[in-house]
Amino acid sequence: MVTTFVHRGGKTEQVTSIERVWLTPASGIMVWVDLAAPSIPESLILSDTFKFHPLSVEDAMSARQYPKAEAYDGYFYVNEVIKVLTVVATIFMPPTLLAGLWGMNVALPRFPGSDAAQFWWLTGATVLMVVGMLGAFRRKRWI
Prior knowledge:
This protein has 143 residues and is α+β, with helices and mostly antiparallel strands. The protein has four helices and five strands; from the N terminus they run βββααββαα.
């Protein structure tokens, strides 16, 4: 079943057909197509009218969705699961790098203070990096 809505002039209304002019970015009109259990002929709306990539149409036809990241013309779509995994990996990367570097038995730059103070300097640097990244991700509304 296909249901189509158009948002224009501050109002949203259901329509029975799609006009080509609505699909241009300059039109200022938002088109929403709801495909509930679409048949193959109904899926052609995505490929023929909206010019969706064949793999995207295949994903829309599938009942099961897998985490993914897809590049489209002008933007990059990242599934929420992938976005969270990326944020977590990015947050844990600097502490892992610092622990790996300063855990080796080689001469590395030293922070001011005694040998015992090196631990606290590295812990402080790690905490600052993690808090800074969390703040940046929060400002960008990624978390």
